[in-house]
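User: I'll paste a sequence; please echo it back and then give the predicted structure.

Assistant: Echoing your sequence first, then the prediction.
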Amino acid sequence: MKQILKYFMFFVIINVLSGCSVIGLSEMMLDEENQDLPSSIGTISSDFSFAALGTGEIAFLTIDPKEVAFLDEKQKNRCSAELSEDRQALEITAGNDYFYVYCSNEDETAGFLNVFDNKGELIKEVSLPFKRVSVSNEIVYGYYDESERTDFFKWGSNISNSHIEATHYISERKFLEKFPDSMEDWNKISKGKTVSIGERQLYHCSSDCYHGTDYYSDQNPLSVFAQIDYVKYCEGELVSEEYDTDIRSRLNQIYSMMKTEEENFLIYSFQTNDKIYGICNVYSQCGDLLTLCTDDFDYSFSFSYDEKEDKLYKANEYTNIELIYEDEYNCLYHKLDGVYYTKLGSDKEEKIYDYNGEIGITILEGYVKFQEREIHYDDDIIDKQEIIKVW
């Protein structure tokens, strides 16, 4: 069966939707059971984050904001934990031995960190003054912001655990010893362009429309990332040639990687620390409702960014696959019958997932989570998630 693929790409996050649009697909599937659906790629957001321990256990958030699911791939066991009545999960990360779920109350006025073991048992809930809390490399990070412009939902749960944004930190060992709920027990990140905490280097980031205070991140704040994102939506038309000179320069670099100045293309970029990668899919024409269909796919290419030269360079070009994700070593892509993976430099191709309906893809440290929404003819919609270690 032909399928429809839509995705949105961040650092290690990709989202795919099977449908011309959510409403359009539902109506088509309900009214025309045997219709052969076109395949297309567009832009949506992913829904839920997940985390994995080094021992292989996995935990993830679900469509229910009060539920956390736990999966042991070795034992093939799955269980779930229910958050307390006045809690809603925001994001999930993993430490050495525990999963950490940051929640807010339903009024979104207070934050709480729930610590779970690998079996899904709640170890402790700690009230914290932060708008965001995450764990990485044996460090617990907190983002403190008193401004009204920042709330608990400025980070979607789909992208939050892909990078660090913090003003304070504490070692995971000390946190588990004392479960401190006061900022006095946390270390404020010192001022400086870069700061090393444990084995991690963090970069200073200035306040913006999403952050009411300066903070530190493991992603270098490179302007090229936002410029590529702008090109994705401007369709070659800039607001002002006078003031958008940087955007025009970036657009021209993208055009230079194409066979000609294409009109029908989708471009996505993602960042890993100070490295930026991207992919572009080119189509011969637009379909109905401005949908870019797989049947009209022409070619695709991947690219990377050279910070010293401030320039984008083409990495690989393809004529038979719609790209979803590519870095220096791995390539994930779409065909009419599903999602495929290949290790760059190898001629081996592996089909990793087949689906029918609406699908979201999230990538984190080699794990790929498929979140599928099946639409049935009795109006029933079923959400399911499957997580696979791909590389």
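The helical segments are 22-31, 172-178, 223-234, 245-257. The first strand starts at residue 50 and ends at 52.
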